[in-house]
Amino acid sequence: MKPLIEAAVVDMFEAGLPARFGVADLDCASGPNALALISTAINAVHHHLLGPAPAAASRCDELTVLLNDLPTNDFTSAMTGLPLLRQKHSVVGSGVDYWPGVFVSVVPGTFYGRLFPERTMHLVCSSFSLHWLSKVC
Question: Total structural domains in the chain?
């Protein structure tokens, strides 16, 4: 998924990234891999923001990250992994700390219904949820 996420972010940068960028992980599950897709997306966005020649229209002040799974999922392990994710995405000693603009939330619910407000999500990832679909939404 990493190359696909990175390519999607590059495409969005070429189209002009919004000041508030929304990323969601459908069926994030729990455990050590719960934050893997989101970490890749954060890396891709910040790589392009801090890269050698970011596009003039590419400005992203806030990155909203929404983790979704069924309400019965134990989101505890994902939430306890956030300090390590923050440490990973903070460049210590370089004067660059792009974590303050990253906001992580949990959105429990089924993706058969609406989960997010209109025009708030720019990248939605799903590794293992689409095979559960019994109908096209």
Answer: 1
